[in-house]
Design brief:
The protein is an alpha/beta fold. It contains 12 helices and 7 strands. It has a single domain (23-41, 50-372), classed as Rossmann fold (3-Layer(aba) Sandwich), CATH 3.40.50.970.
């Protein structure tokens, strides 16, 4: 079976122009000179104060992710979490702004730095923490750990430890939706390092050729593990590179959750309405090293502090406070609620069950055949 021919011709569209994306400076321009019209809109329920309610919700989600990962650092140091652990501290605006713009029927394909995406998608903090601690109560029975969070109920398809590995999976999911005439969006999240992989180019090309409903979201934190963007890419404006496939592409300030939310809603709506694949370059920064094993010797500490000055959480907190939409008592209550949820998740994970050694061979082969018939005695 081959995909149907696209129903509309490729429209004339603006192509992103080069910027100083490889600067590694928070003062570098966060958007390409040519971009679609984006306005900051709240959910469409028509109630008074909805916009500020939505912004407070975004803040709450970022706080959940930030404090969850900070607690993970403590648990890792205490050996409660083992193996690889990749933290997205500093990148919360990308996870929250993007995922909040999606619908429940949409799909999310993520990377190995996916804790924030999973929590924003609605996967319970308990099950995520249990997965990180290798317990049966985790999203993957403790077998996946930090890099392989998966949840079919929320259509969260990983967590993928291979750089760029989620890109062809996202194209496949989008192709299935197209063939079934389902108005869904597949959001594919990846880092700037994945742009150097062959899967990126193959996936972009195929999605463009077949007009597939994919929203490609590149979290450009300027470093592919320890390699600076300018040392690996001759063209450091990744939105410009994506636009070479005749895909609408633009860059967004990934340290501004409202900008990400607005851009993601605009792009997701266009994809859902038959506009074909779109590409967002979310220019962001991670404060911690690539992983807990990384000594982080490839960048200057002063650079990290310059980016911390643009931290998305204090920025939104101050904006809401200045607008009279967030009082000190409400902010403290929000922090207390997040702290309680995290401690509940830790207690749940610590009380969880380790898989019996006799079960480790289970799922190597399928336990069910056609129409649910058993495969194994």
């Amino acid at each position: 079976m081959t995909p149907r021919a696209r129903k509309t011709a490729v429209p004339d569209r603006p192509i992103a122009q080069p910027g100083r994306a490889a600067d590694a400076s928070p003062d570098a321009p966060a958007t390409s000179p040519v971009r679609p019209p984006v306005t900051r809109k709240a959910p469409k329920d028509g109630s008074a104060g909805t916009a500020k309610d939505h912004e407070r919700h975004l803040l709450h989600q970022m706080l959940r992710i930030r404090h969850f990962e900070e607690r993970c650092v403590e648990l890792y140091s205490a050996s409660a979490i083992r193996g690889f652990l990749h933290l997205g501290i500093g990148e919360e605006a990308c996870a929250v702004g993007l995922v909040e713009a999606l619908s429940p029927e949409d799909a999310v394909v993520s990377t190995y730095r996916e804790h924030g995406h999973a929590l924003a998608r609605g996967i319970s903090m308990r099950s995520v923490m249990a997965e990180l601690e290798g317990k049966l109560e985790g999203t993957c029975r403790g077998r996946g750990g930090s890099m392989h969070i998966f949840d079919a109920a929320t259509r969260f398809f990983g967590g993928n430890a291979i750089v760029g590995g989620g890109l062809p999976l996202a194209v496949g999911l989008a192709l299935a939706d197209q063939l079934q005439d389902r108005r869904r969006v597949t959001a594919c999240i990846f880092g700037d390092g994945a742009v150097a992989e062959g899967e990126f180019h193959e996936s972009m090309n195929l999605a463009a050729l077949w007009h597939l409903p994919v929203l490609f979201c590149c979290e450009n934190n300027l470093y592919a593990m320890g390699t600076a963007l300018a040392r690996a890419q001759s063209e450091t404006d990744l939105s410009l590179k994506a636009s070479s496939y005749r895909v609408p592409a633009w860059a967004v300030d990934g340290m501004d959750v409202l900008a990400v939310d607005a851009a993601a809603r605009h792009a997701a709506s266009a994809v859902r309405d038959g506009g074909g694949p779109h590409f967002l370059e979310l220019r962001t920064y991670r404060y911690r090293a690539h992983s807990m094993y990384d000594p982080d010797l490839y960048r200057d500490k002063a650079e990290i502090e310059r980016w911390r000055a643009r931290d998305p959480i204090p920025a939104l907190t101050e904006a809401l406070s200045a607008a009279g939409a967030l009082g000190e008592e409400e902010r403290e209550r929000m922090e207390e609620e997040v702290a309680a949820e995290i401690e509940d998740a830790v207690a749940f994970a610590e009380a969880g069950t380790l898989e019996d050694v006799a079960e480790l061979g289970r799922f190597v082969t399928s336990e069910r055949g056609p129409e649910g018939t058993p495969c194994l005695p």
